[in-house]
Amino acid sequence: MGVKMYFENGEINLYYEKTGQGNPIILLHGNGEDHKIFDVVTKQLAPNYTVYAIDSRDHGKSSEVETLNYADMSEDVVAFIRELNIENPILLGFSDGGIIGLLTAIKCPDLLSKLIVIGTNTSPKVIKKRWLIIMKMVYFFTRNRKFKLMLRQPNITTSELNSIVTPTLVLAGSKDVIPNSHTKYIAENISNSVVKILDGENHVSYVLNSEKLYNIILPFLEME
């Protein structure tokens, strides 16, 4: 689809695909997924944007690791942007990718031009109880490190959200695994933010290779 490449950050190799031309936008998938969930929106963005769709560490074609931490995943993104000299990129993160996006904006306030976080949480405690029980059961039986990550992290404070200066779009479905009240809490604590709760959508319905996502994010992308 695009130019297929690897980026080396220490001992970690990150796989990514670069597509299109124009303002740069980086796409970060969720837990247990890879860049392919964005194939549809990548095609829609490509005429006007240079799209970098990355496989996070321990996902897709990127390097496996023994222990996963969102802080390390954010550092991968920061190193990626700086080493490739990507100027003022937009960052779009879904679920875990949104967590990585928040951490990146907190650590490096001048790095991103815009941030879009989708179905994102600042703590495992806020996940709807039914889903949290399912995740705990899966981890109990599998000891899967990706589920361990979601059950232990992130731990983003209100003051950290308050420190974000990047213009931010906060999205979630009305039937998301993250309560709408928490989605609104995130937006309320980022000074330059817009929140949209999408009626009838669940955590993944408008994101995973959906033609809906492009039109949802386009007004925000085009804002000066």
Give your account of this protein's structure.
The chain is α/β, with parallel strands linked by helices and 224 residues long. It has one domain (3-122, 159-216): Alpha/Beta hydrolase fold, catalytic domain (Rossmann fold, 3-Layer(aba) Sandwich). The chain contains 8 helices and 8 strands. The protein has an 8-stranded mixed beta sheet, sandwiched between helices. The longest helix is centred in the middle third of the chain and has 14 residues, at 70-83. The radius of gyration is 16 Å and the shape is globular.
Q: Provide the domain count.
A: 1
Number of strands: 8
Structural class: alpha/beta
Q: Measured on Cα atoms, how large is the radius of gyration?
A: 16 Å
Cα end-to-end separation: 30 Å
Name the beta content range: 15-25%
CATH class: Alpha Beta
**CATH-scheme architecture:** 3-Layer(aba) Sandwich
Succession of helices and strands: EEEHEHEHEHHHEHEH
Sum up the overall morphology in one term: globular
Question: Can you say what the CATH homologous superfamily is?
Answer: Alpha/Beta hydrolase fold, catalytic domain
What is the spatial order of strands in the main beta sheet?
1-2-4-3-5-6-7-8
The share of residues in helices is 25-40%
- The average pLDDT score comes to 96
Secondary structure tally, helices: 8
Stretches where pLDDT falls below 50 for ≥5 residues? none
The CATH topology name reads Rossmann fold
Sheet with the most strands? 8 strands, mixed
